[in-house]
């Protein structure tokens, strides 16, 4: 059986920033997913985010990209001095880039061989695409019965909507999120990010981990000897999983959760409150004892008593309570609000933009801003790039960013030589035919 061996290269820059939060040096400590081999056929966000999570915690991830163009994410949003998107450098961390044309028989044959000895395959194509290419689950289980075949799509692999194309923007609507994410009386809005894609990637990573554990459960009990399984992730279901009590509330009370702007329905007080100079602060004073401390801090003891004792009571007086808090915060800066509320242990915080996040001492102390080198540091080329760390933090087996997202096809030769045993002449021939390239 072919074996996909971990690729080592001095060209790949080591993560520069570490944190005292982790028990061990995150670049040399053992990783929980070391030895797990992943073949990523995804593109854009959902599939690649799953691969990023697995790679951060030690999995060996080989990313298959189309020759010449690569993953479209490489050219999304701002492009850096090398013509690549910093977003891709972040999402592509710890991966090896291999260019193979899946539209060709030879290209698909190469991928099929690579899939023979990996633990996990990730794909987020439209349902049916992989089967059309002869790379569906049943095509691969014949030679790799322990494969965790991870599929991310808009609506899942089954059901009447399964064949529909589905981007996160659309699936967030079906999952119920877009309906409640609005100001009452106004059109639904979307967050300025693909939330559904990222959540789907996280659910896919969870499915992979559960399935890796499940292989031990299936060993010896599967009638056909198969210990792998399909992980079927739908973007809309990933959103639905986050939608709290909307389904049981509708079932029992025929109540449809409505948009609530900056508040949360049925929880008081928790809101965004105005401060000086057009700034805002978030205050969560909805715990019963926290609420009393908050009212005392803003000198509104008149709003403490039997009528405000529990959340159920306070919901009836939401407008009055929020108004009182707003009157107090409007006379102060966010920093002044936080200083006062920290004294009485009331949860409150600023609304951060990217600059605030990068400069915050707590975020940096936790190691959540990492710096990697893009380019060839041994040749004095490239630039430093800040990217977000990943959570959770594991104290004894922490994850780490070992290198930024690679150049297109950077690892094609090495992977095909080391994993498939191809000769340099065979690789040269494949390049000349346009099957692979760098």
UniProtKB/TrEMBL annotation:
InterPro entries: CoA-transferase_III_domain, CoA-Trfase_fam_III, CoA-Trfase_III_dom3_sf, CoA-Trfase_III_dom_1_sf. Keywords: Transferase. One of its GO terms (molecular function) is CoA-transferase activity. Belongs to the CoA-transferase III family. This is CAIB/BAIF family protein. It comes from Phascolomyces articulosus.
């Amino acid at each position: 059986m072919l074996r996909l061996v971990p690729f080592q290269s001095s060209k790949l820059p080591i993560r520069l920033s570490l944190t005292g939060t982790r028990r061990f040096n995150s670049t040399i400590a053992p990783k929980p997913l070391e030895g797990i081999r992943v073949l990523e056929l995804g593109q854009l966000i959902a599939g690649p985010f799953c691969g990023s999570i697995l790679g951060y915690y030690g999995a060996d991830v080989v990313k298959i990209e189309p020759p010449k163009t690569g993953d479209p994410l490489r050219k999304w949003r701002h492009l850096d001095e090398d013509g690549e998107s910093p977003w891709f450098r972040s999402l592509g961390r710890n991966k090896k880039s291999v260019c193979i044309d899946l539209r060709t028989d030879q290209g698909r044959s190469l991928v099929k061989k690579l899939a023979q000895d990996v633990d996990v395959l990730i794909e987020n194509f439209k349902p049916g695409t992989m089967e059309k290419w002869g790379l569906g689950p049943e095509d691969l289980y014949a030679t790799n019965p322990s494969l965790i075949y991870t599929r991310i799509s808009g609506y899942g692999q089954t059901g009447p909507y399964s064949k529909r194309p589905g981007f996160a923007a659309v699936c967030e609507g079906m999952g119920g999120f877009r309906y409640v994410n609005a100001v009452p009386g106004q059109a639904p809005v979307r967050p300025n990010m693909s939330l559904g894609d990222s959540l789907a990637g996280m659910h896919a990573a969870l499915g992979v981990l559960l399935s890796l554990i499940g292989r031990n459960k299936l060993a010896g009990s599967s009638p056909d000897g198969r210990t792998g399984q399909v992980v079927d992730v739908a973007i809309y279901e990933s959103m639905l999983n986050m939608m709290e009590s909307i389904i049981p509330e509708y079932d029992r009370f025929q109540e449809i959760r409505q948009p609530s702007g900056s508040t949360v329905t049925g929880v008081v007080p928790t809101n965004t409150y105005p401060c000086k100079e057009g700034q805002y602060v978030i205050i969560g004073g909805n715990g019963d004892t926290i609420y009393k401390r908050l009212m005392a801090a803003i000198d509104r003891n008149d709003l403490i008593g039997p009528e405000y004792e529990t959340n159920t009571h306070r919901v009836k007086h939401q407008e009055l309570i929020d108004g009182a808090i707003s009157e107090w915060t409007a006379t102060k800066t966010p920093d002044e609000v936080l200083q006062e509320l920290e004294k009485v242990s009331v949860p409150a915080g600023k609304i951060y933009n990217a600059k605030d996040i990068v400069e915050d001492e707590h975020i940096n102390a936790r190691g959540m801003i990492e710096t990697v080198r893009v380019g060839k540091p041994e040749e004095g080329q490239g630039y430093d790039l800040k990217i977000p760390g990943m959570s959770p933090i594991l104290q004894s087996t922490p994850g780490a960013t070992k290198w930024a997202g690679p150049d297109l096809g950077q690892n094609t030769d090495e992977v095909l030589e080391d994993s498939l045993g191809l000769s340099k002449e065979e690789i040269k021939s494949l390049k000349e035919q346009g099957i692979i390239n760098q």
